[in-house]
Design a protein that fits this description.
The chain is an all-alpha fold. Helix content is about 70%, strand content about 0%. The chain has a domain of about 110 residues: TspO/MBR protein (Ferritin). Helix 4 runs antiparallel to helix 5.
């Protein structure tokens, strides 16, 4: 009889259709809940797009630093990031307990701050307020990453590219604010 294969309970995702919880998780795989979390992340993107439908024209009209990304880069980057943001939260949601609830509250806080940035920057052209918002977003996102790390390391790692992009975006926001004041 072969020896049992150890299961890594930190970052496993069940690939079965069973609704029974997988090893190490408090909730089952729940594809409906996955759609809800990813959908919530993409809803933030949709709200931002709706609030600033002329973002491309605004961005093109701004004085930008030489290291600013080209306009076409934002859509593919954010498409991937929002998917990762949703999956990260879903993986944490699968854990039950107070730690998961606190981590998901922080996830909601950073997502709310994310939702506010685009209307502030592109819609209202309030670059200073947008910079304040993105600084608060960075703090909330760092707390979220730390909380996710304690519960499910893969979830925290899924947020690292978002954290790096948001840090880059904050430097860009500050540079644009100073150049266009």
């Amino acid at each position: 009889m072969p020896a049992p294969v150890p299961v890594d309970t930190v970052d496993t995702v069940s690939t079965t259709n069973s609704s029974a919880p997988s090893a190490g998780s408090g909730r089952g795989p729940g594809l409906v809940s996955l759609v809800v979390f990813v959908g919530a992340a993409y809803a933030v993107a949709a709200l931002g797009s709706a609030a600033a439908s002329d973002a491309g024209a605004v961005y093109a009209s701004l004085e930008r630093p030489a290291w600013a990304p080209p306009p076409w880069l934002f859509a593919p980057v954010w498409t991937v990031l929002y998917g990762m943001i949703g999956v990260a939260a879903w993986l944490v949601w699968r854990r039950s307990g107070r730690g998961a609830r606190v981590a998901l509250v922080w996830w909601c806080v950073q997502l709310g701050l994310n939702a506010m940035w685009t209307p502030l920057f592109f819609g209202l052209r309030q670059y200073g307020l947008a910079f304040l918002d993105i600084c608060l977003l960075l703090v909330a996102l760092a707390v979220t990453v730390a909380a996710f790390w304690r519960l499910r390391r893969l979830s925290a790692l899924l947020l690292v590219p978002y954290l790096l992009w948001a840090a880059y975006a904050s430097a860009l926001n500050l540079s644009i604010w100073w150049a266009n004041a």
